[in-house]
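Inputs:
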Amino acid sequence: MNKEGKEIVWGEYQKEIAPDNYYYARSCIRQNFFPGSEETFLKIVGAILGKDIYDDPHQTTCTGIAYHSDIIPMETTMTVVARQFSLMNDSGYKNFIPSCVTSFGIYTEMIEAWEHFPETLERTKQQLKSATGRTFSLPENLVHTSDIIYKYKEAILEKAKFKLINKQTGKPLRVVEHIGCHYAKIFPAKGVGGAEFPSVLSGMIETWGGEVIDYPERRHCCGFGFRNYVVKENRGYPLSNTKRKFDSMEPFKPDFIVANCPGCTFFLDRWQYVIAEMEGKTYGEDGFGIPVLTYEEMAGLVLGLDPWEMGMQLHQVGVESLLNKIGINYCSFDKYKGANGEDIGMPEKPNILKC
Amino acid sequence: MATLLEQLKTDIRFLEGLKACINCGTCTAICPAAQFYDYDPRQIADTVQNGNELEIEALLKSDTIWYCGECLSCKTRCPRGNTPGYIIQSLRHLSQETGYFTFSGRGRQQLQVKRLVGDNMLKYGYCVYIDEIDTTEHPEQGPVWDWFRQNTDTILQKLGANYKGNGAGTLRKISETDLDELRKIFTETGAMERFENIENKFHSNE
């Protein structure tokens, strides 16, 4: 394909990302499993980049896990989404930024359904009005929160205290990036770079000095599978899917993994613990695991934020190997201290996985 | 009474999901569930496209429709713009409407999902909630989760969260006013009826 043709094709997978004035839609999974990352995002976008971002106390779940586990009708999700947009209208914002990839897919899907089937939009308006008395209008700009960090990756570089470079060798850190399926596989035109060449995370990594690993199962699903994880007896499904990815990336010796989806980040971290305890198999160096980061944690480390104030002590796979490679000074004792510096003990050590 | 196929055609996900399947099998090649289970999305698309009522009924009563992980990888790759994952969503919807979900072990798991995720949403306004997650049911969470649960207040305070607090913030308490709106939406749009249906159909078949 000639250069002009490539630019046309690539142009289809670029999207408008509003520069400021964001309505932040929170993630159920992240608030519970990566609570520090939700706060770190607000700190980076608000205090560090100086953008206006609103955290609305009135929002609720988008119903994403329930919708994709099929316990609720589509009309319910449509109307809950409409309520979230109504809340955004109330607050005077027009740029809606969900921090969950499942939510991003949900919001995008419902808007497309309303476009393809206008009678469903009318029904949603009626149902929202009947249930809550509310009306709503659509956001002018809908992007995932990782898109915001991607947009401002150069601005973050300008403020960087560290780069994704091994301090001892001077070589770029080798990074596995994992994009949540619902970021671009459902609606490729809504993701930076589309489904085949998503650059939302690789763009951050390369800008901040790291090297992206291309491995055979790079685009494979983590295996969350909603009901396949929620129901205990089905959990062999997500475990096996993620193991497939670990086995595929292992020969490339990643220094760390970064993901933009809450479920994926959780599974890539926790299944390493499970595989180690069940099979005695570890994927990092010397019996350790491969650290798994959210994109805010990666950005936060680059910006010099304290890893323990970002919540990285809540990972099951220890992150110290990465901090040491980057050359970040950290206090091991602070990792396990409470809000007022009090001693709160330590988690038990796993039997196999070194932490 | 409408046939099963006619009922499927009232679901916009069925209309979006099945345009004209050429049975190439690309969806099966890309499908993570097909790698793990005895599951073939190509056959699902073929069955509903053929429109045989008995075969559709058998599908609605089977474990098969419950294997899909709804990653929607199939949507990206289908060369004819079909989405087997959407077809699955419409089949699961109809299986619950008809009560056929109680005929399969995988289908009956909907009761567990409803009591976990459904009840969390109504009680807290979150799909998942820290107070309901322990390492007995979730051993994969590991010892770090036990430590987090033992020290939830101080750790979340350290991270700047607003656990069970009023106003904005991570893991804030969602107010009764907002929960009430959520519950009214669930009633208005059929989610409450679905929940009762899952509970009642399950027990009527015990």
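Residues 26 and 79 of chain B are 8 Å apart (CA to CA). Flag for discussion at group meeting.
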